[in-house]
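Predict structure. Chain length: 235.
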Amino acid sequence: MQEIYEGGPSGGMAVNSRAEFIRSTYVHLSVAMLSFVAISAVFHVAGLGRAMLSVLAGGKYMWLAFMGGFMVVGWLATHLADNAESNQKQLVGLSIYVLAESLIFAPLFALAAVISPAAIPAAGFITLLLVGGLTWTAFSTKKDFSFMGGMLRIGGMVAVGAIIASVIFGFQLGIWFSAIMVVFAGGCVLYDTSNIIHHYPTDRPAGAALHLFASIALMLWYVLRILLSLASSDD
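Prediction complete.
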């Protein structure tokens, strides 16, 4: 596939189509991120996160079931956004995923509000800095990072296996696992951004935004976990 900077067989028209797709993708991403912040704030004020923490404390398999349900919803939303013909259906998939992420973050935000409220905005700021740097790298180097796809899939399966094992056998993964997952999420952001620049179908900006939003949310989750671990160790 030719890079968007070279034009390809259709010349300037192909470049303009890809450039418009990239703009539209980041508009969708911005709306998704703002919606995530707004919904999370509503959930926090309503006390949903605290209620979910109480439910999840009922047994070690409750959190595993919660994570499993989230993965199913995420897969369905991604499938819908990637395969729907109309932009409206793609937006439905993106909206479902934003709502699902807001739900899964609710107990973590509730816990952070108790341990270290300042960790939440700090984690958001750090995540934005990291994502900004990775985005600049992808756009400035014009390099195709699609070769990372296989490695990221294997890494993702290993990470899921480690999380499931920690729940079943009752051991803590620790701060180093969170640090590794931040690096993994960074790789996902770089991979998704590269796909948006070079490969992703130009008629699916909502689907592209969903993939990138998922990678950013993964990074935010583990950055916040690192900050909470550091705050707990200082007490």
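Summary: Helices lie at 12-46, 48-56, 60-83, 87-115, 119-141, 149-169, 174-198, 205-234.
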